[in-house]
Amino acid sequence: MPVPVSLLGRSVRLEPLDVRHIEPLAAAAAEDRSSYAFTPVPHGIEATARYVADALAAQEAGRAVPFATVRVSDGSVVGSTRFCELDYWQGPVIWPPAPRGPVGDDPLSAIPDAAEIGATWLSARAQGTGINTEAKLLMLRHAFETWGVRRVSMRADARNARSRAAIERLGAVLEGVHRAHTRGLDGLVRGTAFYSILDEEWPTARVQLELRVSTPRLAVEPSRPLISA
Predict the structure, then answer these.
(1) Helices 22-29 & 45-60, crossing angle to 10 degrees?
(2) Is 107 exposed, middle or buried (0-12, 13-18, 19+ CB in 10 A)?
(3) Is the Cβ–Cβ distance between 6 and 142 less than 8 Å?
(4) DSSP state, 119?
(5) What are the beta bridge partners of residue 32?
(6) Would you say 199 and 206 are in contact if contact means Cβ atoms under 8 Å apart?
(7) Do residues 72 and 9 make contact, with C-beta atoms less than 8 angstroms apart?
(8) How far apart (Å, rounded) are the C-alpha atoms in residues 95 and 78?
């Protein structure tokens, strides 16, 4: 599996998710849940403990790299995000094609060839503060410039216009909408919008993201649902 890593920016620190984050994550998720209509966010200590356990199991299998999102200014845990759907293209071609885990004698040194960013949520008071944008810059930079991936994918409930706009502001390209793709949090069958950034597109996207992160924010934007699978 890829080695867990901490990513540090000016306003946010992404640190490897751990059981010690359970209580602060539960507190962050409980602030105001009105913006989580399309975003799966744990509610309560028990649900958060299961959420963290599932994320760590996916990490152990080499399928995810989960983070706790920490606000630098006061050290508060304000949410979570992760690399998921890690795909490794080494080894023989298999059919039918399917995501596979790391291969080789040393899985701890495995580096994915493609990844998805998902399971992102922030506490109500952290939304619209620029933390999400900088967190995505840190993750995309790590994926493209440290791992050297060929693509990073993102997805959102097709009905979630604000999350889709947020993804597009990252420089991601809409690949299409899978119609009647899965069941949404509201129990209705939903479509899923799929986006990606390719390695050759990253330099242009990085310039725009760095400009957004470095530009002073004159006011806090209204709360909105964040990037969600």
Answers:
(1) 120
(2) middle
(3) no
(4) E
(5) none
(6) no
(7) yes
(8) 42
Q: Digits of tens for pLDDT over the chain (229 positions)?
A: 688 999 999 999 999 999 999 999 999 999 999 989 888 999 999 999 999 999 999 998 888 999 999 999 999 999 999 999 999 887 666 676 665 556 554 555 678 999 999 999 999 999 989 999 999 999 999 999 999 999 999 999 999 998 999 999 999 999 999 999 999 988 999 999 999 999 999 999 999 999 999 987 654 444 444 545 5
Sign of CA dihedral 132, 133, 134, 136: positive
In angstroms, the Cα distances linking 8 to 1, 46, 103, 197 are 21, 29, 29, 22
Cβ 174 vs Cβ 168: under 8 Å: yes
Instruction: Find the largest Cα–Cα distance for the chain.
Output: 53
Write down the pTM of the prediction.
0.88
- Closest to 66 (Cα-Cα) out of 25, 115, 119: 119
Q: Which residues, listed in sequence order, are joined to residue 68 by a DSSP beta bridge?
A: 15, 80
Tokens 């390209």, located at residue: 173
For 155, counting Cβ atoms within 10 Å of its Cβ (0-12 exposed, 13-18 middle, 19+ buried), the class is buried
Distance between CA atoms of residues 45 and 148, nearest Å: 37
Size of the chain, expressed as the number of residues it contains: 229
d(CA 139, CA 61): 20
